[in-house]
Write a structure and sequence with these properties.
By secondary structure, the chain is an alpha/beta fold. The protein has 2 domains: 215 residues, Spore Coat Polysaccharide Biosynthesis Protein SpsA, Chain A, CATH 3.90.550.10; 106 residues, no CATH class. Helices cover 45% and strands 21% of the residues. The strands form 2 sheets. Strands 1, 2, 3, 4, 5, 6, 9, 10, 11 and 12 form a 10-stranded mixed sheet that branches. A two-stranded antiparallel ribbon has the order 7-8. A hairpin with a 2-residue loop joins strand 7 and strand 8. The longest helix has 26 residues. The N and C termini lie far apart (65 Å). Pfam families: Glycos_transf_2. One of its GO terms (molecular function) is hexosyltransferase activity. This is Glycosyl transferase family 2. InterPro entries: Glyco_trans_2-like, Nucleotide-diphossugar_trans.
Length: 336
């Protein structure tokens, strides 16, 4: 029997200026049936000292643990957290993000009122740049669930809606712990959410989704999505290859379709990163190569795609031109 109802895994690396704010959003709503598992992933600043100072004697409580390990990246930190977790459900939070008020009460109510325990509970978030006093600066809604409101067994159409939009943010859900059995985040790889989360969904049967925002997601100017590199392209191509292989090996139409959705949406992401790195014209050869690689399987197994993804596979050139017209660089040039 799990010792707790929910385990919240908080991963931190070199966040000495932000981790106290994250903890401040967690501790007032850490229910008795919840545990907090903090993974310090080899911080070289004073992150762990800030954690120890903030929590003080509460680190002696059974439901609060600080695990320190050599730096292995966010995947390694999350794997450590999952292995250590003792809850019936698993939740994740990055050390620079926050729980919004009502996180714990809302999830507790959902679990209490569910006649059949959900495998996954989805919710929304807000984005923000920074905090001044108690105010989120430049905050706006971040709708990470595309099926809310929903409760109960997920149909094939429900799964297709989730997979075709590809909002793969690990922290925007909680998971029944059995869904993660035998799975792990890929060490040394970026975009670990996109890599593993679809596989978790493929194991799910019942899903609850609500419109309520429960997480405050910090837009980090130093994050990998703002500073892409060739490593990003390599890791995304690994994800594409993994789900293409899954689609080829699938023995049922739904699994094949869902795996293809991940590969197609990842290709759109691959395009966007190429454009950020090389510009809209120089990126085209790389984008064409990936479109040809992924598109070959789509021709054998046609599926309906969202507009932006469909446009990319119809014509990478027109897709890129459309992206350029929408870009800040073009609009600034047009205004001048």
């Amino acid at each position: 029997m799990p010792e707790f109802r929910l385990s919240l895994i908080l991963a931190a690396y070199n966040l000495e200026d932000l981790i106290e704010t994250a903890l401040g959003s967690i501790m007032p709503q850490l229910h008795d049936d919840m545990e907090l598992v903090i993974i310090d992933d080899g911080s070289t600043d004073s992150t762990r000292e800030v954690i120890r100072r903030y929590l003080g004697d509460r680190l002696e409580e059974k439901r609060i643990r600080l695990i320190e390990q050599a730096n292995g990246g966010i995947s390694a930190a999350r794997n450590t957290g999952v292995e250590a977790a003792r809850g019936a459900y698993i939740a994740f939070l990055d050390g620079d993000d926050l729980l919004l008020p009502g996180y714990s009460d809302t999830l507790t109510r959902i679990l209490d009122e569910s006649t059949t325990p959900p495998d996954i509970v989805e919710f929304n978030a807000i984005r923000f740049d920074r905090i001044e006093g108690e105010q989120f600066i430049n905050s706006y809604p971040f709708n990470t669930t595309v099926i809310a409101p929903h409760q109960g067994e997920a149909s094939a159409d429900t799964f297709k809606r989730i997979f075709s939009h590809g909002w793969w943010f690990l922290w925007a859900r909680i998971y029944r712990r059995e869904l993660l059995a035998g799975l792990s985040f890929p060490p040394g790889r970026r975009y670990e959410d996109m890599s593993l989360l679809p596989e978790i969904y493929l194991r799910a049967v019942t899903i609850t989704a609500i419109d309520t925002p429960l997480i405050a997601y910090r837009c980090n100017s130093e994050g990998i999505t703002r500073n892409p590199s060739s490593k990003d392209l390599e890791d995304i191509e690994c994800i594409i290859d993994h789900y293409l292989a899954m689609a080829k090996e699938a023995t049922d139409d739904l699994t094949r379709t869902l795996a293809l959705y991940v590969a197609f949406q990842a290709t759109l992401f691959y395009k966007n990163i190429n454009n950020d790195m090389y510009g809209y014209r120089r990126a085209l050869p790389n984008i064409r190569r990936m479109v040809n690689k992924v598109g070959a399987l789509r021709r054998r197994h046609p599926i309906e795609l969202p507009f932006n993804t469909r446009a990319l596979f119809l014509s990478p050139e027109l897709s890129n031109f459309y992206s350029f017209l929408k870009s800040t660089r073009f609009m600034e040039r047009f205004r001048t």
